[in-house]
Hints:
By secondary structure, the chain is mainly beta. The chain contains three helices and 26 strands. Strands 1-23-22-21-20 form a five-stranded mixed beta sheet, with helices on one face. Strands 7, 8, 9, 10 and 11 form a five-stranded antiparallel beta sheet that branches. A four-stranded antiparallel beta sheet has the order 2-26-25-24. The longest helix is centred in the first third of the chain and has 9 residues, at 2-10. Residues 298-301, 326, 328-330 line the site of one calcium ion.
Amino acid sequence: xxxxxxxxxxxxxxxxxxxxxxxxxxxxxxxxxxxxxxxxxxxxxxxxxxxxxxxxxxxxxxxxxxxxxxxxxxxxxxxxxxxxxxxxxxxxxxxxxxxxxxxxxxxxxxxxxxxxxxxxxxxxxxxxxxxxxxxxxxxxxxxxxxxxxxxxxxxxxxxxxxxxxxxxxxxxxxxxxxxxxxxxxxxxxxxxxxxxxxxxxxxxxxxxxxxxxxxxxxxxxxxxxxxxxxxxxxxxxxxxxxxxxxxxxxxxxxxxxxxxxxxxxxxxxxxxxxxxxxxxxxxxxxxxxxxxxxxxxxxxxxxxxxxxxxxxxxxxxxxxxxxxxxxxxxxxxxxxxxxxxxxxxxxxxxxxxxxx
Length: 356
Ligand code: CA
Ligand code: CA
Ligand code: CA
Ligand code: CA
């Protein structure tokens, strides 16, 4: 705040400073992690993105899939224990959608960008064994460096995946479909965000596609294959709501009747911005994940990927679970990991307890 205030005094003629002076940024409100995952396999900047699988009948058996962008995927339980590791390459971002029909059986389909061979890696999640099974061939992206990834399941039951190229802000979209026991991909769309973008999420109910341009805008596109370049800016870095580059992962907490909330990792300020899912996606507020002394879990900084579900996942997560990557896992020397936060606490601190 201090530096901005002086910048405003010095550059008093710049539009927006008057508003900044009259509306000082509110400090992000703290929430606390309930659990943290086992550290990822490799040192330095390695953990990145996550996806949550909700078990169809027993919420306690739900899973978190996390990327180690130097090595592959880890699958964690709700206590954060690593159950499975797939050393399949430099898997950067991951997402999941249910309802992928393989030989007549609906399975959860997982996809991840693989920077080792510039492809999309595909997996099915076996609900009985709770393990990931590789499916199909890696899908070539044609990108020099595939980076962000998110999935979309449209109302007709068609699965899609979006992938960005790291340097130029290009996105491509593929339709994913089963072919016998395997999965294949057909490219259907390409568009340009303008500059480097990684975090994205599709809203399966509304057909919106949200993209965080790391040093630029927070955008709303259409997720349908004919969505083209049409977009609406929800917010932007430096725009007055406290977004500081890079803005990173994006996730949706689905409430009832089209309501809910969108969470954006505000990496440059070690916080998260929350917007309403409905209407014009108005800004709600900022929160951060502090430490939990009683549980001996360190707080969270410099988050890359985020994932959230509104499904109740047992007594710790009655209104759902937020998973965030932690850029610095203490005690010092530990590899990076992911922290779990109860949505109920986030809703409480933001004054949203009776909403959604
Ligand atoms: Ca990034
Ligand atoms: Ca990242
Ligand atoms: Ca930390
Ligand atoms: Ca720790």
